[in-house]
Write a structure and sequence with these properties.
Blueprint lengths: L7 H26 L6 H20 L1 H10 L4 H15 L3 H24 L2 H19 L8 H7 L7 H23 L13 H15 L6 E5 L5 E5 L2 E6 L7 H17 L16 H15 L3 H14 L1 H4 L4 H8 L16 H17 L7 H13 L25 H20 L3 H6 L4 H10 L9 H9 L6 H15 L2
Parallel strand pairs: 1-3
Antiparallel strand pairs: 2-3
Helix pairs in contact: 1-2, 2-5, 3-4, 5-6, 6-7, 8-15, 8-21, 9-10, 9-12, 10-11, 11-17, 12-14, 15-16, 15-17, 17-21
Length: 490
């Protein structure tokens, strides 16, 4: 790991870029957590200005000159920043600012549409965001598909064709497993009352064992759970708790997994613009690993179930570990992606990927999106969509102009299983440690393999180093087949 010894002028420029990103993250976090609804328009203007200033600094010819001079001293930093510089130079500053403003306006429209349970309220804002996404993609006419340009913002180097191939393999493996499980007697998810205050207390205990520290982290509520790290020692996570479900605990594990990634970047990379995750697929691998491979394992709950039972004696007093594991690992097609089990989850992602492709290439019009959504939900998961709130309005991403992001969720699932396979081989006694409530060895291992590198490597390079090969769905499919085959007696 290099200790950046950058030219002072280049270090200052990268520091300014990092500071603008920091400010944008804080304003965006505040918009979803603290800001009164009426502040949306002004917030959109402020975010647009920050985005424009960031764009102007990043495309400035002087930055290119500074990068040329530093190429030998810090080649990996220069390579990454130069890529950012060259991409941004292709995008007009006003377009970048307009995309930011439209995202803020779209978020407000999405909230209003959810309140009204009416996609028509959101449709104009989404149409604007799709148009802007096409204009952004048009800045790179050499791309094989305009979606490649949008995907590259979140998963650098990936293409729609590569994602489609990966998703075919996932569907071919998941659909038969889901069909076999569906033939078994139906099971119920965990019933009972779980007061939010008590969930929050034990949730904090869980994530403090993972590395959540009140001096550098905070936990809040949000309509759509998310995590953001304005700085390495300023990590903000949100969850969404419910009195009749423990899904908020798993959402919290998920978001803290994201936070650990940003928190674990080598401090030497602070304010170089490389002190973030290398891609959202790699980022998602961290959250899904903690949520599912750790958080839904018998080893983890060997330690935590007695403590959970103490909090909720009326609901859990008669449940043992085996019954609890069956209850928190029920496979059942559902409407809401963030509440989906780990077997059906990737089908929710594939659905969104296919809809995004249609929206971008023009084969699907925005006004037809709810019907297309409902049709694919029926095709993929066999469920009927009762209304817009439980269908096309459930995710925040399109409201903020985030097009091309969804595939990274399934990429993260695939990579999480690969990392888990290697971790099990390299960390002696990992399951025993988890059963004692000790997760430090896993956190340190992930920091060494993934977190500390920030954006020094490309996603493909990092994955190769971490797991010894490229993305491969086989470990994920094998894990799901073994785990759920045992749980369901297949």
């Amino acid at each position: 790991m290099p200790s950046p010894s950058l030219d002072p002028a280049l270090a200052a420029r990268l520091g300014e870029l990092s500071d603008l990103r920091h400010a944008g993250h804080v304003l965006a976090w505040d918009q979803q957590v603290m800001m009164p609804a009426a502040g949306g328009r002004a917030r959109g203007e402020a975010l647009g200005t920050i985005r424009r200033l960031h764009h102007e600094l990043l495309v400035d010819a002087q930055l290119g000159t500074l990068l040329d001079a530093a190429a030998d001293a810090e080649p990996r930093i220069v390579r990454t920043v130069r890529r950012d510089h060259e991409i941004e130079r292709r995008v007009p500053g006003e377009l970048a600012a307009e995309i930011s403003r439209a995202g803020s306006d779209g978020y407000a429209a999405w909230l209003a549409a959810r309140e009204a349970n009416d996609f028509a309220v959101f449709e104009p804002a989404l149409r604007r965001n799709i148009d802007l996404a096409r204009r952004y993609a048009g800045c790179f006419p050499e791309a094989a598909h305009p979606y490649d340009v949008l995907l590259d913002r979140y998963e650098p180097g990936a293409t729609a064709a590569q994602v489609a191939t990966l998703f075919v393999a996932l569907r071919d493996g998941l659909v038969p497993l889901i069909s076999e499980i569906a033939m078994q007697p139906a099971r119920q998810a965990l019933p009972g009352d779980f007061p939010v205050a008590a969930q929050r207390e034990i949730g904090l205990e869980m994530v403090q064992s993972m590395g959540f520290d009140r001096t550098g982290w905070r936990l809040d509520d949000a309509v759509h759970p998310f995590a953001v790290a304005p700085a390495l020692r300023d990590v903000r996570v949100t969850s969404r708790f419910d009195d009749h479900s423990l899904t908020g605990l798993f959402a919290l594990l998920h978001e803290v997994g994201h936070g650990l990634y940003e928190h674990g970047v080598d401090p030497a990379l602070a304010r170089t613009t490389l002190d973030t995750g290398v891609s959202l697929g790699v980022h998602e691998s961290q959250s899904r690993l903690w949520e599912n491979l750790v958080g839904r394992s018998p080893a983890f709950w060997t330690h935590w179930l007695p403590r959970l039972r103490d909090r909720f004696p009326l609901s859990l007093r008669d449940i043992d570990l085996d019954a609890f594991m069956r209850a928190i690992n029920v496979v059942r097609p559902t409407l809401i992606r963030v509440e989906a089990d780990e077997v059906t989850y990737s089908l929710h992602v594939i659905l969104r990927f296919e809809l995004e492709l249609g929206l971008i290439d023009g084969t699907l019009d925005v006004i037809d999106l709810p019907a297309a959504w409902a049709a694919k939900m029926k095709q993929f998961l066999g469920v009927d969509v009762p209304d817009d709130l439980h269908g096309v309005l459930q995710d925040i991403h399109w409201s903020e102009g985030i097009i091309g992001y969804f595939p990274t969720y399934a990429i993260g699932n695939v990579l999480a299983a690969q990392l888990w396979q290697v971790a099990q081989a390299e960390i002696e006694g990992l399951d025993d440690a988890l059963s004692r409530g000790e997760v430090g060895a896993l956190r340190v291992w992930l920091r060494e393999k993934v977190h500390r590198h920030g954006r020094l490597y490309t996603p493909a390079e990092l994955i190769e180093q971490a797991v010894g090969g490229p993305l491969d769905p086989a470990p994920m499919l094998a894990h799901l087949r073994a785990k759920y085959g045992a749980l369901y007696g297949l």
